[in-house]
Design a protein that fits this description.
- It is built from five helices and six strands.
- The chain has 106 residues and is an alpha+beta fold.
Length: 106
């Protein structure tokens, strides 16, 4: 997999892997039932573990219809939620905010 393909298979902490290509080439409109039948056992990797495609779409009704791969990916991202965040309350932007410090030059 090239770097570009790898970037496309990862979204907001979720590693879609080969499922990304499968969803992109799938014919839409498609229902949840159709997508789960075809790809339900595919694994999605998260920072804290993994889940299946079927598990992520479980809150949706079987007849829920998706118009594009983008819609399916948004549904997955929405459903996975904070499980894809990794370390909660982590920031690589430093430990303080300059505006919070007593700095007379501000």
């Amino acid at each position: 997999m090239t770097d570009a393909e790898q970037r496309r298979s990862r979204e907001l902490g979720i590693e879609f892997g080969e499922l990304s290509e499968k969803l992109a080439s799938h014919e839409y409109r498609a229902t949840k039932a159709e997508l789960v039948s075809e790809y339900g056992e595919r694994t999605l990797r998260l920072p804290g573990g993994e889940t299946t495609f079927a598990e992520t779409l479980s809150p949706y009704d079987a007849d829920e219809s998706f118009a594009s791969a983008g819609e399916v990916r948004r549904a997955v991202v929405t459903t996975v939620g904070s499980d894809a965040v990794g370390r909660e309350r982590y920031s690589d932007r430093g430990i303080g905010n300059r505006l919070d410090e007593d700095d007379e030059s501000v």
